[in-house]
Amino acid sequence: MKSIKTNNAIVHFNDNVYKELNAYIKSSNPSKIFILVDTNTHDACLPKFLSQVESGDIVVEVMEMPEGEDHKTIDICTGVWEAMSEYYADRKSLMINLGGGVVTDLGGFVASTYMRGIDYINVPTSLLAMVDASVGGKTGVDLGNLKNQIGIISEGSMVLIDTSFLETLPNNHMVSGYAEMLKHGLIKDKSYWNTLINFESLDASALNEMIYDSVVIKNKIVSEDPTEQGLRKILNFGHTLGHAIESYFLGNADKVPLLHGEAIAIGMLLEAYISTKTAGLSNEELKEIEEGILKTFTKVEINENDQKVIINLLQYDKKNSHGKVKFVLLDAIGKPKINCEVNNDILLEAFKHYNA
């Protein structure tokens, strides 16, 4: 697969990954290499990765964090910063983030702020991180249960996508990443959407081309609007309500936490319905979206009390401006609209439709 050039980095795939990584290490000659993993990737991915890295005399330090969204916090960042200081990391050190979206988001933030910024490389090991989290330079952590409230946009030196790591993933994490691929089709490419919804199995070996296509779609959007002043906002389709739902289920002891993609799938269903009320989406395409998403994702009960709390959480969404909640909606599949305002009556109607 041909490498993809982003604004400030390069995304390499499969056969090129370790050749390019080792060439980069040789040419940049970092003072030390720090590899951030979580408890899952430490066991499932690190041995293979280390066996491919040619570090020569450069010292390699491995730092391990707990796995899961609830550990994507500033406290974990502090622990990583302190560990790097203890091992004498300097401004010529290199950080490699080997893991899913939590590791690449947090690790990118840590690297971008340590000594005002050191070089870092993302090596995504989950489908979600491969098609979304690791590409585009968004780094950061959650603030309590509020998703990605603290962070900066800062691209690493490269992204290395080795799809063989997907073989280590449980099915629910594969499904979670699939939601972001579906989103890319809905906001940018109807033919890609059609390919995805007619895909029979989330088998890692068959996903290579579709992963590549998703990265191409996201990169085109980010390259035109790297700091999210306009076009890049379309990547938030399904995320306004989806992030609020994810935050609510994460912070409520009575609820089973949802994976990111599971919450975004619900958000896309809700925001597609809203699109038929306030944008131009037809009922026919709404039905197509609902059937396409529910073919893979199971509905989750969201009662009236849940809905009220979720709607209140919308005030923390990062797209908001001047106290107004801003949605990304669809005129049609592949034709998004940004900066849409929606009243609470329509939000409640969308939840009612979803539950029905």
UniProtKB/TrEMBL annotation:
Establish whether keyword ATP-binding is in the entry: no
Q: Which cofactor does it need?
A: NAD(+); Co(2+)
Kindly name one Pfam family recorded for this protein: DHQ_synthase
Q: Which organism is it from?
A: Winogradskyella poriferorum
Enzyme class label: lyase
Q: Which residues form the 3-dehydroquinate synthase N-terminal domain?
A: 63-174
Q: What is this protein called?
A: 3-dehydroquinate synthase
Q: What does this protein do?
A: Catalyzes the conversion of 3-deoxy-D-arabino-heptulosonate 7-phosphate (DAHP) to dehydroquinate (DHQ).
